[in-house]
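Each record in this resource describes a single protein on a pair of labelled lines. With that in mind, the following record should read easily:

===
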Amino acid sequence: MPGDALKRFRRLLPGPVTGRETVAEMVEHTFLAYNSARLRELADLYVGRVLKSDVVVGMSLAGALTPAGLGASCLVPLVEAGFVDWLVTTGANLYHDLHFAFDFPLYVGSHRLDDVELHRQDIVRIYDVLLSLTNNLLPTDDRLKDIFRRPEFQKRMGTAELHYLLGRIADEEERRHRRRGVSLLAACYRCGVPVYVSAPGDSSIALNWVEAVMLGSRLVVDPTIDVNETSAIVWQAKQAGRKTAAMMFGGGSPKNFMLQTEPQVQQILGLDQAGFDYFLQVTDARPDTGGLSGATPQEAVSWGKVDPQTAPDAVVCYLDTTVALPILTHCALARHRPRRLRRLYDRRDRLRQALVAAYRDFEDSEDRGTRD
């Protein structure tokens, strides 16, 4: 019969919005088309499949999210619920996260303010977020300069260890100010979530450790450690029969750094493995201009970043993260119970050593094959 093919689809006939709905109910019943539907699909995939106990969830963050308050409101609850196992972000997000830990205030402002006048008053604007140069940024810098002179920072380390040490300090500051749950770094420290920065030299955290190095600090931040650790996290998950998910807010370097773990394992090390099982992204970039870093999930299949057998388990929502993240956080916490913390930070050395051993065995077998 004509039209029978449509019967497998959900009829689009929503009821009226009453004002009594929860956010999760709004998403389910009124987010039916265009990018609202993509957001509903993303929430359904995240809650229904990605948050299963056998999925290792990586999250990447680009854009000024923590100064907008999304660290305290969304990211900390997700981390504490066990909904994020490892994290890649910009250094700027972590620098501004420290303002909350140190109890240096930020303010809700406006994008229409006179920036010349703001500059005269030592006020810095991040679109419509305001903070003081003298009462926020400079005191944060002073604290970081002192921190990077401490004995525990006088060595070579990756960014996960760097941010674990900063997270311990942030946790102490939260306790001192009696403001637990305001700092993403502190939450990741408590929950054993490793935090990587893909471009460690590109933030005010780096500017302050460089100042310490100029004065004799022996701190060396080595990105090769990060590449091996993150690749080991993804490789070991697959070896253990688990699935892997990449949940990305924005694009840029953090997104690519997360997804490049699979080409590192498959292309560079030559180990047999498929790509990520789940690909979830919220972005406002376009692929046709080259601005959508890491491109679409379909393109990522060609690089081995996404398993071609699970490419349908991919959703891209073209939306502002500041709109999508609170909605997704609500849906996840409302519809899924907390997961057991995986505490990958505590296991990162063992995971890396296992990857190195597998690669050496592969190289030895290749050498024997060549001789034979």
